[in-house]
Specification:
Elements lengths: L4 H9 L2 H28 L4 H24 L7 H32 L6 E2 L2 E2 H25 L4 H4 L2
Antiparallel strand pairs: 1-2
Protein backbone atom coordinates (compact mmCIF):
# COMPACT_ATOMS: atom_id res chain seq x y z
CA UNK A 1 0.00 0.00 0.00
CA UNK A 2 1.37 3.45 -0.98
CA UNK A 3 1.78 6.61 0.98
CA UNK A 4 -1.53 8.51 1.34
CA UNK A 5 -1.92 11.50 -0.99
CA UNK A 6 -2.11 14.02 1.88
CA UNK A 7 1.17 12.72 3.32
CA UNK A 8 2.84 12.90 -0.11
CA UNK A 9 1.72 16.53 -0.52
CA UNK A 10 2.97 17.39 2.96
CA UNK A 11 6.37 15.84 2.20
CA UNK A 12 6.58 17.89 -1.02
CA UNK A 13 5.68 21.11 0.80
CA UNK A 14 8.09 20.37 3.64
CA UNK A 15 10.94 19.38 1.35
CA UNK A 16 14.52 20.23 2.27
CA UNK A 17 14.53 22.89 -0.42
CA UNK A 18 11.41 24.61 0.90
CA UNK A 19 12.57 24.50 4.52
CA UNK A 20 16.00 25.94 3.62
CA UNK A 21 14.23 28.57 1.49
CA UNK A 22 12.12 29.54 4.49
CA UNK A 23 15.22 29.86 6.72
CA UNK A 24 16.91 32.12 4.17
CA UNK A 25 13.58 33.81 3.49
CA UNK A 26 13.41 34.73 7.17
CA UNK A 27 16.99 36.05 7.00
CA UNK A 28 16.16 38.06 3.88
CA UNK A 29 13.00 39.38 5.52
CA UNK A 30 14.98 40.39 8.62
CA UNK A 31 17.42 42.27 6.37
CA UNK A 32 14.51 43.89 4.53
CA UNK A 33 12.72 44.90 7.73
CA UNK A 34 15.92 45.98 9.48
CA UNK A 35 17.01 48.24 6.65
CA UNK A 36 13.39 49.43 6.24
CA UNK A 37 13.06 50.48 9.89
CA UNK A 38 16.53 52.06 10.16
CA UNK A 39 15.98 54.05 6.96
CA UNK A 40 12.45 54.98 8.03
CA UNK A 41 13.86 56.45 11.24
CA UNK A 42 16.53 58.33 9.29
CA UNK A 43 14.32 59.56 6.42
CA UNK A 44 10.86 59.84 8.00
CA UNK A 45 7.49 58.20 7.43
CA UNK A 46 6.60 60.28 4.37
CA UNK A 47 9.45 58.55 2.50
CA UNK A 48 8.01 55.03 2.91
CA UNK A 49 8.27 54.08 -0.77
CA UNK A 50 11.90 55.22 -1.11
CA UNK A 51 12.78 53.51 2.17
CA UNK A 52 11.12 50.33 0.91
CA UNK A 53 13.18 50.51 -2.31
CA UNK A 54 16.44 50.75 -0.33
CA UNK A 55 15.40 47.79 1.83
CA UNK A 56 14.53 45.88 -1.35
CA UNK A 57 18.02 46.26 -2.84
CA UNK A 58 19.65 45.00 0.36
CA UNK A 59 17.25 42.04 0.65
CA UNK A 60 17.55 40.96 -3.00
CA UNK A 61 21.33 40.94 -2.72
CA UNK A 62 21.16 38.64 0.31
CA UNK A 63 18.48 36.49 -1.31
CA UNK A 64 20.41 35.80 -4.52
CA UNK A 65 23.64 35.01 -2.72
CA UNK A 66 21.88 32.51 -0.43
CA UNK A 67 19.23 31.06 -2.77
CA UNK A 68 21.53 30.16 -5.64
CA UNK A 69 23.96 27.84 -3.83
CA UNK A 70 22.14 26.84 -0.65
CA UNK A 71 18.45 26.60 -1.53
CA UNK A 72 18.28 25.66 -5.20
CA UNK A 73 21.70 23.94 -5.33
CA UNK A 74 22.83 25.92 -8.38
CA UNK A 75 26.61 25.69 -8.20
CA UNK A 76 27.51 26.70 -11.75
CA UNK A 77 29.25 30.08 -11.48
CA UNK A 78 30.08 30.43 -15.18
CA UNK A 79 29.13 33.90 -16.40
CA UNK A 80 26.53 32.60 -18.90
CA UNK A 81 24.64 30.73 -16.17
CA UNK A 82 25.05 33.38 -13.45
CA UNK A 83 24.01 36.22 -15.76
CA UNK A 84 20.82 34.38 -16.82
CA UNK A 85 19.96 33.48 -13.24
CA UNK A 86 20.79 36.93 -11.91
CA UNK A 87 18.87 38.72 -14.66
CA UNK A 88 15.82 36.49 -14.18
CA UNK A 89 16.08 36.62 -10.38
CA UNK A 90 16.37 40.41 -10.21
CA UNK A 91 13.68 40.84 -12.87
CA UNK A 92 11.24 38.62 -10.98
CA UNK A 93 12.07 40.34 -7.70
CA UNK A 94 11.43 43.73 -9.32
CA UNK A 95 7.99 42.49 -10.37
CA UNK A 96 7.12 41.25 -6.89
CA UNK A 97 8.66 44.43 -5.43
CA UNK A 98 6.33 46.47 -7.66
CA UNK A 99 3.44 44.41 -6.29
CA UNK A 100 4.60 45.21 -2.74
CA UNK A 101 4.98 48.92 -3.56
CA UNK A 102 1.45 49.03 -5.00
CA UNK A 103 0.19 47.23 -1.91
CA UNK A 104 1.96 49.67 0.43
CA UNK A 105 0.74 52.61 -1.64
CA UNK A 106 -2.87 51.48 -1.29
CA UNK A 107 -2.45 50.67 2.39
CA UNK A 108 -0.96 54.09 3.13
CA UNK A 109 -2.70 56.43 0.70
CA UNK A 110 -6.06 54.78 0.07
CA UNK A 111 -6.79 52.81 3.24
CA UNK A 112 -4.80 55.25 5.45
CA UNK A 113 -3.38 52.37 7.47
CA UNK A 114 -0.60 54.66 8.67
CA UNK A 115 -3.26 56.29 10.86
CA UNK A 116 -4.31 52.95 12.39
CA UNK A 117 -2.80 51.54 15.52
CA UNK A 118 -3.15 48.12 17.07
CA UNK A 119 -1.11 46.81 19.99
CA UNK A 120 1.08 49.94 19.80
CA UNK A 121 2.03 49.18 16.19
CA UNK A 122 1.26 51.36 13.19
CA UNK A 123 -1.11 49.82 10.64
CA UNK A 124 1.61 49.90 7.99
CA UNK A 125 3.57 47.35 10.03
CA UNK A 126 0.70 44.90 9.62
CA UNK A 127 0.38 45.75 5.94
CA UNK A 128 4.11 45.22 5.41
CA UNK A 129 3.92 41.88 7.27
CA UNK A 130 1.01 40.59 5.17
CA UNK A 131 2.64 41.76 1.96
CA UNK A 132 5.96 40.18 3.01
CA UNK A 133 4.33 36.77 3.48
CA UNK A 134 2.68 36.96 0.08
CA UNK A 135 5.93 38.07 -1.57
CA UNK A 136 7.98 35.26 0.06
CA UNK A 137 5.61 32.62 -1.34
CA UNK A 138 5.52 34.21 -4.80
CA UNK A 139 9.30 34.53 -4.88
CA UNK A 140 9.74 30.86 -3.96
CA UNK A 141 7.48 29.73 -6.78
CA UNK A 142 9.18 31.99 -9.32
CA UNK A 143 12.68 31.01 -8.18
CA UNK A 144 11.88 27.30 -8.26
CA UNK A 145 10.10 27.16 -11.60
CA UNK A 146 11.75 29.96 -13.53
CA UNK A 147 15.03 31.27 -12.15
CA UNK A 148 16.80 28.15 -10.85
CA UNK A 149 14.84 25.53 -12.78
CA UNK A 150 16.68 22.33 -13.43
CA UNK A 151 17.23 21.34 -17.03
CA UNK A 152 16.17 17.88 -18.21
CA UNK A 153 19.79 16.68 -18.18
CA UNK A 154 20.26 17.97 -14.59
CA UNK A 155 17.27 15.92 -13.46
CA UNK A 156 18.26 12.77 -15.39
CA UNK A 157 22.06 12.41 -15.25
Amino acid sequence: MGIPVKEQRLKKVLSREFLVYMVFGILTTVVNWGVYHVMLELMGGSMVLIVNAIAFVAAVSVAFLTNKPFVFQSHDWHWKVVSRELFTFVGSRILTFALEEVGLFFCQRVFRMDTWELLDLNGLVYAKLALSLLIVLLNYAISKWLVFRKSAEDQNP
